[in-house]
Design a protein that fits this description.
heterotrimer, A mainly beta, B alpha+beta, C alpha+beta, B: alpha+beta, FAD/NAD(P)-binding domain, Arc Repressor Mutant, subunit A, 6 domains, seven-stranded mixed sheet, six-stranded mixed sheet, 23% helix, elongated, C: Alpha-Beta Plaits, 5 helices, 11 strands, globular, FAD/NAD-binding_dom (chain B), oxidoreductase (chain B)
Chain lengths: 95, 1005, 222
Amino acid sequence: MYHIYCPHCAEYREEEEFHAAGQAHLPRPLDPDSCTDEEWGTYLFFRKNPRGIHHELWVHAAGCRKFFNMTRDTQTYEIKEVYKIGEKPSIVAES
Amino acid sequence: MTQKNRLQNGGRIDRSQSLTFSYNGKEYQGFKGDTLASAMLANGIDLVGRSFKYSRPRGIVAAGAEEPNAVLQLGATEATQVPNVRATQQELFNGLVSASTNGWPSVETDIMGMVGKLGGNLMPPGFYYKTFMFPQSLWENYETMIRKAAGLGRSPKKNDPDSYDHINHHCDVLIVGAGPAGLAAALTAARSGARVMIADEQNEFGGCLLSTKETLDGKPAAEWVASVVAELSAFENVILLPRSTVNGYHDHNFVTIHERCTDHLADIAPALQARQRMHKVRAKWVVLATGAHDRPLVYGNNDVPGCMVASAVSTYINRYGVVPGNELVLMTTNDYGYQAALDWHEAGRRVAAIVDTRTAANGSRAQAARAKGINIILGSAVIEVQGGKRVTGVSIAPISQDGNKVTGAIKALSADTVASTGGWSPVIHLSCHTGSRPIWNDEIVGFLPGKTLQKQLTAGGINGQYELAAALSEGFAAGQKALSELGLPAVELVLPKAKVAVQDAPMSLFHIPHIKPTSQAPKQFVDYQNDVTAAGIELACREGFESIEHVKRYTAMGFGTDQGKLGNINGMAVAAKILNKTIPETGTTIFRPNYTPITFGAVAGRHRGELFDPKRYSAMHQWHIKRGAKFEDVGQWKRPWYFPQGAESMQDALNRECLAVRNSVGILDASTLGKIDIQGKDAREFLGRVYTNAWAKLAVGKCRYGLMCGEDGMVFDDGVTACLGDQHFLMTTTTGGAARVLEWLEIYHQTEWPELEVYFNTVTDHWSTLTVTGPNSRKLLSELVDYDITNENFPYMDWKQITVAGVPARVFRISFTGELSFEINVQANYGMHVWEKLFEVGAKYSLTPYGTETMHILRAEKGFIIAGQDTDGSVHPHDLGMSWCVAAKKPFSFIGKRGMARQDCMREDRKQLVGLKTKDPKQVIPEGAQGVFDRTAQIPMPMVGHVTSSYWSENLGHSIAMGFVKGGLSKMGESVFYPLADGSVIEAEICSPIFLDPKGERQNV
Amino acid sequence: MSDNTTAQETVTPIKAAVMDQLPSAAIQGQSPLHHADLDSLAQQGPKTGGVHLREHKLLCHLTLRCNQGDEAQKAAVERVLGLALPLSPLTSVEKGDYSIRWLSPDEWLILAPGLEAFDIETKFRTEMPGHYSLVNSSGGSTVLELSGENAIDVLKRSVSVDLHASVFPIGKVVSTTFAKSTAILRRKGDHTFELIIRRSFADYIWLWLQDTSREFGLVIDA
């Protein structure tokens, strides 16, 4: 059970109030019609599954209903930071 | 029967309160303050069960959570049966009924006959694994026999009469364990004003201090405990939880605690009280002050009743006034072990010998024993014990100082009790729950908590600090550390003075050698509950299982209800020895929640029966109940399924309801449909992006059906959206899709198109939706409205704000039945009023309420899909024959457009939704049936698609169905066959799914 | 705040449908807990207990969504309701029968007397500039007031948020899970809390509250 800081409600809440909505920072192609099948397939189906730092989209479903981003360590379950949509993570995996 | 092992004085029991309990049908007496185990020992009960594999007699070994054998069935009635209760943790109450969970037909009788043979030959390590390698039928035979004979408790067959509770907490510091370290930590944190919780599994606080003769400031330690508990209780911000086992330590300092509120009072909880409570705690800091368990040694026949861990002997004497035997042999590798012999001696019974595996012992406790004239045999070990249902004697021999060999002659001693200790094992279980790996420490001969990311502190025995003074000061330090981390002020605390004992180093020894090789020596048990022996572990290692994780799974070591609390480290040591590795090289031991077993009742809490899951009701629900509706679950909603009259069968009711709608008028409670209010100047643009069809030109006052797809082009929801104002729309969704669709709109708005000016709000619960449908619906409604609702004035696919039965309403002329229909939406507070008024005037039209099943049939007659029934996430609008609902020319590449244009989506042989008319009009194809083109094809037959909707249509006089068929849209008139499980085959003709009124004239009148 | 908040130009009004949804007073509305007949329970039930429950039924519930950075919009809200929009997360404001709860950075819940919904909506539509939405949700929820010495014990069994006065002071409002449903919870006093619950879940929550308060004694207040 995670304890998650909602950047909009500005306090910690229990995980049961949230939904994970998959990998963050996957912008919809601006012109889908010009994508090849492969490009579209990559956008639709291919996701990272890192061991360690990962950026995810979450929504405070039972609270303010706002989506936000989370940087999370998939190995230790440590939440490194949360940040609003449109913002960039300050913690990223070492390449 | 008298309590032959009860001392005249001493202990924390109340001899003035005698309690009667029964064990295996026989009545005994104990005292208030007893555990079931201490009362059993007081009465001289040696046998508590028979072992799982070998059916060997077993007795009580320990005095706490680590007990592997005294795992009993409790309960005075069928409904109150609780399996696998540790007698060492169950407080005695008057009228307690207990029985051994294993041993059939009784623990005293060895009916298994084959005992040794069955166990010895048929159940070596890897028994389960090896058995499964052979035909499974064999396993069934074994299982029946093993379960009956060995057993591990049983569940009640009747409903539990008790209630269970869950409660949430938040605190600054949670202290686990109310021994000296925990109490010192709690007092420190509490004095600073922190919000403190302290939980302990025992019935009273004090931990090891309850079972010791140690003093603090020269007074009995219990006096200090009482003063601390009194001070803690007075703080408003402190919660004390005795009888509460901290069972799980989860991520981000989330801790679950299992409190047994009334288990100590009676078989059934007193009125209005929860029997057990699960505390869910989010703690800023957790202090683990969980202490240590005494680790028994592994020696021949060490499971004969009378063999116990050394500290348990002290606990029974000091805390319960029970000496569990007459003649003790103590075997120890360390100084602490001597305490058991000292306590035994002081209780006035004979200590036959202290057998110390070390060659010298000069610590304070050893000196005390010597001073009392107790026989101390150094450099030796008990290599085996004699006896069947009780120890009768022991064999003692000198051993080598590497612990591997017997080096001299065997000496026999008579004894009825053997206490052993290989040293303390810190209770690191909780520290492991969050994934932290414990670290072996040679100095304390045990595992210590490893690194953790949790805000966790440890104090006392868990750190290998076993002396009282050290435990107290560690507890104080942990409290101060928590305070400083929390930014709270430090406090003063004068710790009570404890005597300091001089200690000799312990010997690192786990498995006592025998003159015979392990495989031929008397059984040396490592894990009592799962009957894992040292020989078994050696065999596993020889068979190639070198990883301790594999050894554990192969031998089932640590897989019992005790999770190997006593056995795991010994097992690792045995494996390490045979693999010629050190313990840390062999691996580590990991414990997972729960620390001790927990009842299902406590897990469920209040979420059972009526409260198991929310039931959602519409505003007309009470009417449906009165009318005798049968209900169907749609998500969490309870929707009327059909309304039987009298003894009518379901099919008869459906036929009647269907005919009523087509011939006169019916009414459906459609309130459960998801409804989303959409406002903003870009609302229209947004609709165009999330629906497949066009929305740019929908005029105010009009409604339109829309299909919603994922980016993959597959349909996931549908519904009608009305244009309420130029920048204001009301979207409807499927009942089950409401929440998902709203989140879908929000995620696109919040993450992709935040520049669009639009807001979404759910109004599902705000509106009651009453669908009046059928040729007489206009006549009926005309009587209740303030408006001309003729077709000219109120045409199909329009909506009007009018008054229905005096209530302002938005009425939509949309139809899911294909009949003339009016969907009346009124504020839900007035839904019942309008519903009842409709019935008042509807009687003359035989207004018929219908449920979801009739709705399904009527829409299927019209070929209307139900998203989720006729779609499954793998079909796009063209597959559904709904290309008319895709506006490919819209300027914005709407969600789903690119997806459905993928190569695979353009294949001509995709499965497409078609109508199916059976050759025999009476036959109804089962939904889910798979179709084939060639009924004579070889098995496995190539399958061409399944039936999604199938009903008997009373209106048409024949069955109707829809289903997917490969390339079906271009196979009209061809046959498809449905071979069924019973061998029969149904033939159907591929047709249009619109079985009734293909031109749509009925809905448009 | 700017001292020059008068609208500079006429903004194109949002073309939204506003509707007086109430019938004449002769037709009595049914709150989501109508079937529980709380009035009879209030008369016949126990008069003492650790938990008191009162339904504030058939009130006006309006959901407002707008831009918290838009001074003109904030001024309009104040003109219509006589209350300033609470901008800090999880706060609420209250004056007489009117109150506003922060639900999210662009969403507020307004409560007002039951008969005033249409009036307030109409005023908003005249006064409020720019992009916003206002939705009448009066039929979709009801308000429960939970009070008494053990009200907090019932809530600790129902919600996972921290209710300690140091972190949940009077006036704080949270949207959260409530048992297996959801609720908007606000503290009104040391021992008084307000729950706003959805209509379709009302019966579940009513059953839940009866179950959790049984050991403390439940008193229904009229």
